[in-house]
Amino acid sequence: MTFNQTVTLVDTLARFHLKGESRQYFFGYLWWVLEPLLYVGVFYLVFEILLDSRQPDFLYFLMVGKLSFIWFSKSVNQAASSLEANKGLMAQTNLRKELFPLAVIHQGFYRQLVVFIFLICFLLMGGYLPSAAWLWLIPITLLQAMLITACGLFGALLVSFKRDFRLLIQLGMVFLLFMSGIFWDLNVIADMRLREGLLVLNPLANLIDCYRQVLMLGEAPNGMRLAWVLGESLLLLIIVWAAYSRLQFWIARQVVTR
Amino acid sequence: MTALLSLTDVSMHFSPEADSRYAVFGGINLTVEAGECVALIGRNGSGKSTLLRVMAKVFAPTSGTVSWAPGVAVSLLTLGLGFRPDLSGRDNAFLSCLLLGLSRKEAAESLSHIEAFCEIGTFFDEPVRSYSAGMRARLGFGTALMNRSQVILIDETLSVGDQQFREKAREALEQELAGHRSVVLVSHAEQQIQRLCQRALLLQDGAIVSEGSPDDVLAEYSASINKTP
User: Fold this and answer.
1) What is the share, in percent, of chain B residues with pLDDT greater than 90?
2) Contacts of B103 in chain A (CB under 8 A)
3) pLDDT of residue B20
4) CA distance B210 to B204
């Protein structure tokens, strides 16, 4: 299969899956935006109305964090299960195994583009004025896509080794939800070294902070921090790509004969 | 004759500890020449499907070597490859063609052939979940015919639809395979094997125990079944 055919296949798998998925529900494509909004609604109710978060502009703060987090968690969770979900296809063809998680990740990217357009409209309606700094949204989004690709491919590999990793990945997402500053501001951590350490160890928290800096404060993000995310994602991507190249048959055997 | 595919001393087991209880087959030697049709016969669970998957590069053998002639595509003929019930027949056929290795343009061009062949009328644009089993099989067969591989591995997928469509499917497949392709056919349909294949192999107890003309091997297979208590 040529590179062009591979790209066409990944894109078609993603688009057709979205089409099929939308036909299963009464609200169809509307769920792309409804589902994340409902999550935001629940968090807003708990942290702002019940617990009085005291975070200025909490709704916008929460939306920027939560909508980026959902993209990450949903894509990585689905990518992790994608090899198992396509075991029938894997038993019939010798397609490269990374195609399946990549199609799921690509599908999440399409969905997120719509979510981001909605988020921007919501911010504009809330009085946030666009500035040149908003252009940073493009590299930050691409960086997050790269991070999701690396983590999604890695997750799928782990789940093909042992199904138990699927549960661990789901648990890991709950941990990340609390550790990424979705409903609290990482900048309240007084110890600077601890805060910087957390941002280095958790690239998602780093990206969410950058999104807020760009969209809510209208400031360019710290280039060094973006370089960290780039380095971490690239390193993991190279490692998992090498692993997939070596383990094609092993993955098929693990998944198909399970 | 040119060998398109050859297996040398190939074995397969599904346990990492080489536990003999998980052995599927061993010591398999087999060559598939250009243009020939070989039948693979054996009881259920004898390892025929796994052997086809080794030939199709789905599984690597535990030991032994499998060699494919350079540039030769080998694939399983599969009905309904990657079908999703919520998508229409047209979308599924397009996706299936891409999975078979066709380009976007070739896949789009194939759709009219598939639509005409499977004779399901306006249902071609309806979701596959609304299809009867027969309609689904027709769509699957029409799409599977777009497989362009030089070596086709068939795992008991030829009996689809009603009598009239079965006849049409048989003729179409035989026309597709005539002369220029090599086929390894797993089937229990004696007439089909006798009509299509020049050679047959009997897989039993994890080894090829007989090889020869389809008539002789089928006779041996019948005798082995009758002998089993």
Assistant:
1) 44
2) 4-5, 8
3) 62
4) 9
**B66-100 pLDDT, tens per residue?**
999 998 889 888 887 888 999 999 999 999 999 98
Under DSSP, the state recorded for A128 is: P
What SS3 state is found at A56? Answer: coil
Q: Across all residues in chain B, what is the average pLDDT?
A: 87
The CATH architecture one would assign to domain B3-73+185-227 is: 3-Layer(aba) Sandwich (3.40)
Tell me the ipTM for this assembly: 0.85
Cross-chain residue pair A93–B14, CB shorter than 8 Å: no
For B32-65, the pLDDT digits (tens) are: 998 899 999 998 888 899 999 999 999 999 999 9
Residues of chain A numbered 102-141 and touching chain B (CB < 8 Å): none
Supply the range of the domain harboring residue A216.
Answer: 3-256
Closest CB to B75 among A8, A93, A249 = A93
Find the chain B residues whose C-beta atoms sit closer than 8 A to any C-beta of A: 14, 53, 56-60, 75-76, 78, 81-82, 84-87, 91, 94-95, 98-99, 101, 103-104, 127
Number of folded domains that form chain A: 1
How far apart CA A39 and CA A65 sit, in angstroms, is: 12
Q: Please tell me which of the candidates A23, A93, A249 has its beta carbon nearest to residue B99.
A: A93
Say which residue, A98 or A186, is predicted with more confidence: A98
CB-based contact, A10 to chain B, within 8 Å? no
Give B77-182's CATH code, choosing from 2.30.30.100, 1.10.287.3510, 3.40.50.1820, 3.40.50.300: 3.40.50.300
Exposed, middle or buried: residue A156 (CB in 10 Å: 0-12, 13-18, 19+)?
A: buried
Place of tokens 């020939």: B36
Q: Which of A211, A78, A217, A76 is nearest to A141 (CA)?
A: A211
Is the pTM higher than 0.95? The answer reads: no
B201 by DSSP, 3-state: which? strand
Provide Rg for chain B, Cα atoms.
Answer: 18
Verify whether the Cβ–Cβ distance B103 to A4 is below 8 Å.
Answer: yes
Would you say residue B177 has pLDDT above 80?
no
Residue type at A93 in one-letter notation: T
Q: For chain A, positions 61-90, list CB contacts with chain B under 8 A.
A: 89-90
Report chain A's C-alpha Rg in angstroms.
Answer: 19
Asked if the C-beta of A19 comes within 8 angstroms of chain B's C-beta atoms, the answer is yes
Cβ contacts of residue A94 below 8 Å, gap of 6+? A248, A252, B56, B57, B58, B75
